[in-house]
Amino acid sequence: MPAKGFRNNASVVFLCLLWYLLSAGGNVLNKLILQEFPFPLTLATASIVTTSISSIPLARSVAAAERKYHTELSFRKFFTMIVPLALGKLIAVSMSFFSLYKVPVSYAHTVKAMMPLFSVLCARFVVGEKQTNTVYLSLLPIVTGVIIASLSELSFNFVGLITALCSTFSYALLNSYVKKVMHDTGLHHVHLLGRIAQTTCFLIFPLWIFHDVVNFNKVELKISWVNLFCGLLLSGILNFAQNVCTFSLINRLSVLSYAVANVTKRITVITISLLTLRNPVSFINVCGMLTAAFGVLGYTQMVKRQVLGEPVGWSPCVVHEPYFGANWCFAFTFHVLNTALQASNIAQRRKTLPYVYDVAAARPLVSVDSWPSDTNLVYPAMIRVSSPLSSENSAHKLENGQLFSKSPKISFHKYKKIFH
């Protein structure tokens, strides 16, 4: 076990370092290309095409599992769910590269720290989910940091600010909508990523031709077409590799640990871009960047406390799966890993969302559609209840490993705490 734990920790550290280098390298490379080749939509097209092609073998690996559970995507669902996501991705990726073209890498990443603010707004007005006042107050350092960085940015560009905000808002909106699409379609997230990327390719090609291709001969390039092609190809590969690292770390780390890693990545990207591209910054500008970056970490901590209460620990719960009319009993902890339950038969075969029932509080706690970004779960032991438990209005409690309800009585398997 110690050796296994050491290998797991070493692999996480390696993935984090690789993630930082890929992200920093990709952003610096994109900025260098845009300085010589002022066509950000071309870089966006290269990124989407590379993701589309690279996701094909990964999508095939999960296709068998989807067929096993009879997942189908109708023509109507494709146009009402996949196409809107593709349009959102088109806007988000394109605006991201336009902002990178207009402003320095360091400032663009500082503005992207506004993601939690847009996520809260989308959750409030799109999903109807309210937050506590503490969570709303935790957004102030992020907004303050971005304002300070904007006012002190020596290379400030209003168009760059607006496009960066549009990109960040689009990603927040996509994150809110993609959960509903995954539930309604039953598609695996890798397969869904491929479908979205492939659909986005068809949408972006006409725009790319009329906006960029027809203007290629109007600009005197300072770089050869061969070097440009190699740069675009490398940019797309780095972007896809970064996405793979992101998914891997989300599956391995807790919410808070991933937030820390993400803040560290953002600081790494800003630092490396400042050292390599040498864009001028002031002390106040750096303070604004750091305030926004660490504000994201504080926001994540507040959200964790809102969901779980204090302290974080074990909570005996029941996962009720309405589709099968049965209950599955989990002894699990929050903020550890999300892969186990996400990959389980319950998640794979769901037609209606299961919900997690807090035994101690006698109330539904969280729904599967909030995973993996909001709540992470892992179960070391699981048993199935032969007959359904009464749900919302019944009082349940756990005493000495026994789950008691009016009917039936069941026992949890022995379980142990797992620390990550």
What is the number of domains? 2
Number of extended strands: 9
Task: Catalogue the unreliable spans.
Answer: 308-420
Order of helices and strands: HHHHHHHHHHHHEEHHEEEEEEE
Q: Can you give the helix content as a percent range?
A: 55-70%
- Helix/strand-derived category reads alpha+beta
Work out the radius of gyration. Answer: 23 Å
| Residue share in β-strands | 5-15%
Question: What is the makeup of the main sheet?
Answer: 6 strands, antiparallel
Which outline best applies? globular
Distance between the termini: 13 Å
Helices, by number, come to 14
Q: What is the average of the pLDDT values?
A: 69
Subcellular location: Membrane
Protein name: Sugar phosphate transporter domain-containing protein
Organism: Trichuris suis
Domain Sugar phosphate transporter: 12-299
What can be said about this structure in brief?
It is built from 14 helices and 9 strands.
What does this structure look like?
This protein has two domains: 12-308, no CATH class; 314-411, no CATH class. 64% of the residues lie in helices and 9% in strands. By secondary structure, it is α+β, with helices and mostly antiparallel strands. The longest helix is centred in the first third of the chain and has 35 residues, at 2-36. It has helices spanning 2-36, 40-68, 75-102, 105-111, 115-127, 133-138, 140-152, 158-185, 189-211, 225-252, 255-277, 283-308, 339-343, 345-348, and strands spanning 314-321, 326-334, 355-358, 363-367, 377-378, 382-384, 397-399, 402-404, 410-411. A hairpin with a 4-residue loop joins strand 1 and strand 2 (326-334).
